[in-house]
């Protein structure tokens, strides 16, 4: 047997094979129990030792060659077969997927975290305060003395009083005082929290809602600083460039006081339903901390000054997710909550 | 409050910016103009005057003053050239008595005779209408007009209807002022000149507190019962007006009125405010008095009103103003630190500009180069800034070199050396600006007039230190995230609950109550998060089969002072107790709490009477002896009330206690390189035997070569004898340092079986 010609012949045969069964036949012919190579191996037993080694080696090489070639060809057939199958198989990708049940955090939690994250990155500490307050912390300490028109408006109309004494805080500003009492300036804090107002509820008013208060106190913290900090915050939060407008306002606990409007991010100031066709959105109240408030917090207003601001967490959340009714937040409705 | 554009314009010679433009200027520098609307030939501006400026800006004059400052126009002086009748002296006609000067700091009055009551001229009617007031008659309209113009409420009484007193010493009066002591004709009470022989009467007005149960009928025919907290204007017999609030029917101006008493007074704002709330009677007048009017305003307003009455209603004004003003309100002075303006606003406004702004707003500059001696002023502000940072501090900001070296301090900013002298101005505050008390108030005036909008944002210079982590918030976030991973959705509920929950859950003395709830469903502070979470379940079951929700929030427990406590509570529908227990195990594990155990729930006596929990299917979750919370099935009796037709499992953690056990410490446990082997054991035990007991026996026999034991089957029923339960466990054996041999494992397994069967009632099934 001429090994070289056998090799060439097998190569041709493998190339010509049209199916796996053709290959199977080739395998049987050469490598099977009664195959050609097997017979050749039997033959070499009779040869001299030297020859035995030489031919044995060659036969082995041929065997390895054959196995490899057949395997290669077989893989080729299988590949073709599979790609044929792939092409022919019918499959409907529009059938619905199998759902898995995730948990969901409340949208107010998500937005609170986001806001806190931005302020923390600017060195503001996140602080909490009690929900039941005294008149001192909720009003007097914040420069809203008894019989003051602001006190009258907030206290009589809108404050929930407890039969056993105390009240439900109407703003998170009380936490400013608690914090100033316990910490030395410079101060940088934000205070998220639940607040309460005795109001008739509608799509934009709730009796239980959330605020975020901010306070920065230092030797020379200014209104210009407030503008820069709040602008940075808004840009981070809304992830776009923001135009703000600062106009005068009145809060007993700040002097000067500002109202901050933001150019509507929905219509870029052209006017839309989100901004009630004014192009601007009233976003938050702010101002320079009133000296009396600093004093009531135990700081000397001759040495310290700063800004404070307060905004409605509910409102920012409603803006972010385009939620049109504040009452959804406390509805406990999973059809709402599972969207976040 | 609404303002007439034409009226505002009437204060100026120069043309004001057009209404829209003016509105924009006012919004950006004064207060928000909420609406601008054309009405006939006039425009109406609805300005949201905030309470701080109620004292001067509930008036066209006040807003005109703002326009003066903001549009660089000059206010005209309003006409009030009064011609007084020489033959009549006011003080002879009327006697005013203020019982308590704190109640009424000032009372001014005039008497006007020969009035022709009739409709007002058209222009006046129009102005009133545009501002939302209905014209009544010329006298009343002029009083209202003056209120809209100056902010000072005035009231006109029919002089003839006021009761007076007969002077005790007619002789003296005759000598003093013969014109004043006149008889009142019974036929014609309005006539001053009916000098019939007999009784002389002088009218008397008393400003006093009402008597208890004293009654008054007001102009609108409503009856009010008053008390000692309410100030009234009275004659010798009855109240003729609720002071600063509403006039009485008794001395109403009518068509026949010929003589009027015109009142322009100042009342204690707190008392007016209280009375108006108490009587639930809010009027244009009371609203203004509540906002602290300037007592110096009364005179100007009454004179101008008298002038107009004279002009329009043909009146004769008696000579002299009756003015009871025991303690004059004087102008305050405030010293203003120019450096502080810059420091607080963060912008440099030139001194010239500052002075212009203040003057245009009506402030008087007493000294523009004021030397401050009092060390209480903020003269050394700059120094303090720098000293705070240490004695060798040197900061460079652009070109500004700031130096601080102990007591030899010298500050240089550019070329300017800052010293106390020269950087102060002394300002006199006009009394109509009672809201200005401090230099910060003046800085606001400067800032807003200059334009807050013009202040350029500057990032603060602050220490670059990371914010301190708030541990409470960190663990709140951490636990919320774990529950979310476990498939829970977070809800926020009201902190209030109502009578229904009180009844169903049997809350009693732990319940704190609101004094002023908005509804009976929101009347109490929640002592537990469970009730409303169950309501959430009931509502969501309409749309969902499986429910897993939680809330992390405060509950309130009444004791001497009501305490608030943060709780973490979850409820699950379509979930078994054991599934929930598994969730809690993993949850606590993730929080770094490992040594937890579940104790039998023993309701306290109070709880036992009206339990939330199923008495058998509830466990106390404990770490050591510390009780963190409860896990259990909600009592079916409660579910029945809430119309929930399936089992609900709940967990209820005292979050503060839970947080104390939480730990972030976490150490990697090397994965054993040696294979684990699993053997099963099934044991038949009496029905009352707890799995825990079986586990304990397996573990104590197996020692540390047991890596884990899993209960994989639990059976009670037909296949096992009555009263027995079959428990089957996978026991996983693994050593850290070698591959366990079959012999070794068999030996331990035998030991375990022996240990289990030590109890004669337990039988290991082979």
In brief:
The complex is a heterodimer of chains A (340) and B (766). Chain A has 340 residues and is α+β, with helices and mostly antiparallel strands.
Average pLDDT metric of chain A: 91
* Structure class of chain A: alpha+beta
Q: Number of helical segments of chain A?
A: 12
Parts with pLDDT < 50 across at least 5 consecutive residues of chain B: 169-191, 193-199, 375-420
What share of the residues of chain A lie within helices? 40-55%
Layout of helices and strands, plus pairs?
The complex is a heterodimer of chains A (340) and B (766).
Chain A: H1 3-16, H2 20-31, H3 36-43, H4 49-88, H5 107-121, E1 125-126, E2 132-133, H6 135-138, H7 149-158, E3 167-168, H8 174-182, E4 187-196, E5 208-218, H9 223-238, E6 244-251, E7 254-263, E8 280-289, H10 291-296, E9 305-312, H11 313-321, H12 334-337
Parallel strand pairs in A: 1-4
Antiparallel strand pairs in A: 2-3, 4-5, 5-9, 6-7, 7-8, 8-9
Chain B: E1 2-4, H1 5-9, H2 19-29, E2 33-39, E3 42-47, H3 54-57, H4 60-71, E4 84-89, H5 90-93, E5 94-98, E6 106-113, H6 122-130, H7 138-150, E7 154-158, E8 164-165, H8 170-176, E9 182-183, E10 200-209, E11 215-217, E12 223-225, E13 231-234, E14 239-242, E15 246-247, E16 260-266, H9 269-278, H10 284-290, H11 297-312, E17 316-319, E18 322-324, E19 332-337, H12 338-345, H13 351-360, E20 364-370, H14 381-387, E21 394-397, E22 400-403, E23 412-413, E24 416-417, E25 424-429, H15 439-450, H16 471-485, E26 489-490, E27 496-497, H17 499-505, E28 524-525, H18 530-540, E29 547-557, E30 563-573, H19 577-590, E31 596-600, H20 605-609, E32 613-623, E33 626-634, H21 636-641, E34 648-654, H22 655-661, E35 677-686, H23 691-702, E36 706-715, E37 724-733, H24 742-756, E38 763-765
Parallel strand pairs in B: 4-17, 5-10, 26-29
Antiparallel strand pairs in B: 1-3, 2-3, 6-16, 6-17, 6-18, 7-16, 8-10, 9-10, 10-13, 11-12, 13-14, 14-15, 19-25, 20-25, 21-22, 23-24, 27-28, 29-30, 30-34, 31-32, 32-33, 33-34, 35-37, 35-38, 36-37
EC number (chain A): 6.1.1.20
Organism (chain A): Candidatus Nealsonbacteria bacterium CG02_land_8_20_14_3_00_34_20
Protein name (chain A): Phenylalanine--tRNA ligase alpha subunit
